[in-house]
Amino acid sequence: RRGQDGYQSKAFFDSGGGGFGQACQCPQFRSQGVLVEHVPCHYWRISVVCGARELLFLRHAKSDWRVAGSDFERPLSKRGRRDAPRVGRWLHRQGLRPDLVISSPALRARQTALDVCKAFGIGENRIGWEARVYDASLQTLWRVLTECNRRADRVLLVGHNPGLALLLAHLCPTLELPPDGKVLPTATLARIRVPADWGTLESGSGVLLSLTRPAAMDTDPE
Fold it and tell me: Which of 69, 100, 139, 214 is 20 to 30 Å apart from 157, CA to CA?
């Protein structure tokens, strides 16, 4: 049986004759990303214990190259300001609220993260502005992920290419390139299922669930 998001794993307690009762969450298992199903019975037996979490990789929305200034201070373009909220609305419709949001502090990524998080009422002070994500290598992004709070079951990472695309390929090596050869164009969201413990991520341990570009987000069924 799957959890509310379709991918949340569970530990089921069963008995010889009892049916499933009301679901509850045991803190001991919940801290490991495992939802526990409670069954009223004379004895309990754990039949399945396994965990899974999700990563949401979001490349910042399209930026405006016409604005003078440093790369770090480059803002979103008109198209980017339209696409970023679109991503947030799509995530909200899909029921994919992040437990933890980590973003590059570069202006274009910052604006993207803020616009996305508005859909969930997540304020600026609840976003982790991680300087290492800006212009980060694969190794640096990997370290950022392994340091995630273990209580977070779904993490949204807002960043830049080529780092995000390299990280996606490292987690999901069987990823097939889209027809145009672009894995993560601006404002594109990758949804990945990963093992339960952030600290034990391994190359190839991810399962790509979806790769969605902003143009498809208004047409996807709710």
Answer: 69
Closest CA to 52 of 11, 104, 109: 11
| Domains of the chain, start order | 10-48 (no CATH), 52-217 (3.40.50.1240)
Question: Residues, the chain, total?
Answer: 222
Quick check: pTM over 0.85?
no
**Residue for token digits 């214990």?**
49
* pLDDT (tens digit per residue) in 46-90: 333 346 899 999 999 999 999 888 999 999 999 999 999 999 999
Q: Compute the distance between CA of residue 35 and CA of residue 54 in angstroms, rounded to an integer.
A: 14
Contact 58, 156 (CB under 8 A): yes
- Would you say 116 and 156 are in contact if contact means Cβ atoms under 8 Å apart? yes
Query: Around Cβ 85, how many Cβ atoms within 10 Å?
Result: 17
Q: Please state, in angstroms and rounded to a whole number, the distance separating the CA atoms of residues 108 and 122.
A: 18
Contact present, 5 and 30 (Cβ < 8 Å): no
